[in-house]
Design brief:
single chain; 363 residues; alpha/beta; six-stranded parallel sheet; 10 helices; 31% helix
Length: 363
């Protein structure tokens, strides 16, 4: 029997839709890009021209009335996520929400409850769970190569000292905005996936750019304190003039792993390379991380390159796992559990409290 095809509607037609969702949806045979909601097409940004065989709506309220739509992907700016996800769930659609999930923990729990009530699948697009460097680290931890971890550092730093060219919603204070929601949620999600929810949190949110009078927080440093003494340092910076940016530095009793450069999938997608193309997501060999291990007998340290997983997992895995969840009709099978995504938002809220009050906060 042929596998069922699920019709997908994408709300929004900006970078998120065009780079991170549409190419992946089109790469999965069981999914069909059925429709796109674009409120205000422009001559240089028109979904109907880019996808002439796809149905185009100009209002989400109209699209959700289409009974042939099975899945709705919300890719609009964060302040709209809650209302659009709620609208889709109320109309019987399965829902994918681009990260950050929603601006508040309360809204996250409301959507989780609504999805349960409507018996619909709900998930959040934390695609960096499928970064090849992160999964390489996951393998090192699973095999206990580094021993008991005492310090975990995870960075997404860039050198962008000017706001020129930044997307409007990424350069002004608004619900769900700022570095901690934009990139920080990726780092928090990965840390929670590896180590669970911390006991305490200390955070510093602010702007590194000189002369920024908007109140927009372009950078963040978040310390997650764990019960076993491990400290996780999560950092997003916009002023980091480095030829290679630190991505991970993890230290344990038996060894350490240091990795530079960000996963290449985002750059490949932006270049128009698809997830089924040869070489997609493959790092240059000289991007390999550095693994240092300790000889437990004599304490000798050995350092060597540690290649990233090959062939690399890709963001396409999010959608292939979603297809499996649709087949099983089990919320537990979705690629990103909404309860974990909600926990991430809760940690973001606590980070803001910590930063504003200048204190460490219990979780």
């Amino acid at each position: 029997m042929a596998a069922r095809t699920h019709n997908v509607a994408v709300i929004g037609y900006g970078l998120s839709a065009k780079v991170f969702h549409v190419p992946l949806i089109e790469a999965v045979p069981e999914l069909k890009l059925h429709s796109i909601v674009q409120r205000h097409p422009q001559p240089d940004n028109d979904a109907s021209k880019d996808h002439p065989n796809t149905k185009i709506y100009h209002a989400a309220e109209e699209m959700v009335q289409d009974g042939s739509v099975d899945i709705v992907v919300v890719t609009t700016p964060p302040p709209t996520h809650f209302d659009l996800a709620k609208l889709a769930l109320e109309n019987g659609k399965h829902v994918i929400v681009e990260k950050p999930f929603v601006p508040t923990w309360k809204e996250a729990n409301q959507l989780i409850g609504l999805a349960r009530e409507k018996n619909r699948l709900l998930t959040v697009y934390h695609n960096r769970r499928w970064d090849s460097d992160f999964l390489t680290l996951h393998h090192l931890l699973r095999t206990n190569t580094l021993g008991r971890i005492v310090e975990f550092a995870s960075h997404l730093d860039r050198h962008k000292p000017s706001l020129a060219g930044a997307k409007a919603w990424k350069s002004r204070p608004e619900p769900g905005g700022g570095a901690i929601y934009d990139l920080g949620t990726h780092l928090i999600d990965q840390c929670v996936l590896l180590f669970g929810v911390p006991k305490k949190i200390t955070a510093f949110l602010g702007s590194q750019r000189q002369g920024d009078q908007t109140g927009y927080e372009d950078s963040c440093t978040v310390l997650l304190h764990y019960g076993d003494g491990m400290l996780a340092t999560l950092k997003v910076a916009v002023i980091s003039p480095e030829t290679k940016q630190l991505r991970f530095w993890v230290r344990g009793e038996r060894g350490s792993w240091k990795k530079y450069y960000a996963d290449p999938q985002e750059a490949h997608l932006a270049e128009g390379k698809g997830p089924n193309d040869a070489g997609f997501g493959v790092e240059p060999a000289d991007w390999a991380g550095t693994l240092t291990t300790t000889d437990t007998d004599n304490g000798t340290l050995t350092t060597q390159p540690h290649p990233t997983l090959t062939p690399p997992p890709t963001y396409k895995s999010f959608y292939t796992q979603l297809v499996r969840a649709l087949s099983s009709a089990a919320q537990d099978d979705v690629p990103v559990e909404p309860m974990v995504a909600a926990a991430v938002i809760r940690l973001v809220e606590l980070a803001r409290t910590s930063s504003e009050d200048g204190r460490t906060v219990d979780v």
